[in-house]
Amino acid sequence: MLPELKIAQLRHFVWVAELKGFHAAAEKAHRTQPAISLSIKDLENKLGETLFEKRNAKSSNAELTPFGRHFLPQAKELIAHHDRIAEDMTLMAEHKTGHLRLASVPSIASRMLPSILSRFVANAPDLHISFYDDNASAVLKMVENQQVDFGIASLWKAEEHGDKSFTPIWEDHVGVVCPCDHPLAGETSLHWETLRDHRLISNGTSRLLEGTEAEPLLLDSQFYISNMISLVAMLEAGLGVTTLPRFAFPEESNTLTFIPLTTPEVVRRIGIVRLSNKSLPPAADALVQFILEQSKEQKK
């Protein structure tokens, strides 16, 4: 049976060897000299060999045996390996190292996460983050397949996702997006039936209208465009109008306008989506808590 070597005993051995004496090692360890002697004796018993020559009464120096000289670099290597692992685990527990994976819907990815992540990693330069930007369905699928630690999305039809938990954080209202020179552009709010007189373009967020009185607009849509860049290009070209949550509206656009849809009032709730039966890695859990804290601060 292999001996179980204690790190403290290895440290005591190295200190005695390097400092050339039990008294100096005891001072460094903040222990008594007899305690250090007992520690070394126990280590020798485990190894089955003596580590230090019998001390000469005329000298207080501790001299290594041939076995002790051979064991010294091995002991140092064991201590260094232990300390590296202990440091890595401590940093990981403090979310300062490791690999964090998350996915988010584009609107939150572009609007909220840049400032949140920049503050979060400020004190964690060794933390690696893999970030995926996709629609809500894709984000939920990545969470389900454990490709990411957690996702940021809306949980559509929660009853179909019993394996996931949802913590709401943000909410935004659905409105109509059209070119600034469109006949609807001058309106301050819109009733859904008004849209039936115009060419409609549906997109990935149009499903938010399901179950509302505006649901007929989904059947009225002549086009479906899934990609946001393509959708914006088609809107700017005057192909039609679409519905989008406020966060998804491209604020940098000088050619498009957002008009609130007030009848019905449709609200999209976005939050943290994770598997219910899985614990988050320390870094991911720390980020979730950080996001929750930041959202509370913004609401004050």
From TrEMBL:
<comment type="similarity">
    <text>Belongs to the LysR transcriptional regulatory family.</text>
</comment>
<dbReference type="InterPro" id="IPR000847">
    <property type="entry name" value="LysR_HTH_N"/>
</dbReference>
<protein>
    <submittedName>
        <fullName>Transcriptional regulator, LysR family</fullName>
    </submittedName>
</protein>
<dbReference type="Pfam" id="PF00126">
    <property type="entry name" value="HTH_1"/>
</dbReference>
<dbReference type="GO" id="GO:0003677">
    <property type="term" value="F:DNA binding"/>
</dbReference>
<dbReference type="GO" id="GO:0005829">
    <property type="term" value="C:cytosol"/>
</dbReference>
<dbReference type="InterPro" id="IPR050950">
    <property type="entry name" value="HTH-type_LysR_regulators"/>
</dbReference>
<keyword id="KW-0805">Transcription regulation</keyword>
<keyword id="KW-0804">Transcription</keyword>
<dbReference type="Pfam" id="PF03466">
    <property type="entry name" value="LysR_substrate"/>
</dbReference>
<dbReference type="InterPro" id="IPR036390">
    <property type="entry name" value="WH_DNA-bd_sf"/>
</dbReference>
<feature type="domain" description="HTH lysR-type">
    <location>
        <begin position="5"/>
        <end position="65"/>
    </location>
</feature>
<dbReference type="InterPro" id="IPR036388">
    <property type="entry name" value="WH-like_DNA-bd_sf"/>
</dbReference>
<dbReference type="InterPro" id="IPR005119">
    <property type="entry name" value="LysR_subst-bd"/>
</dbReference>
<dbReference type="GO" id="GO:0003700">
    <property type="term" value="F:DNA-binding transcription factor activity"/>
</dbReference>
<keyword id="KW-0238">DNA-binding</keyword>
